[in-house]
Amino acid sequence: MTSLIRRITPNNSFCSLRLHPGPCRTPDTGISIPNMDPAVRPGDNFYLYANGGFIARTKLPADRAAIGVFSVLSDLSFKQTASIIEDAARANAPRRHQ
Description:
By secondary structure, this protein is an alpha+beta fold. Helices cover about 35% and strands about 10% of the residues.
């Protein structure tokens, strides 16, 4: 069974969007439909309505209080920097003569 969301487009016409797993964004807004929880009524708890799917699927690492795009990018940057330093250290390491 496919869930549908009806929304009003900028020109006041209706558009139906299918909810399915995986990355899906409306073409004109960038809203990630799978991050929403259609089981929650927007008037009851808009935060959970808009973010419930993301909250249900996302597990925080034990060493983090939060996670987001910037923390992921920061981790990637640190790993790449460490790799560059390790490669440079190996390349410049003194060679043992046998």
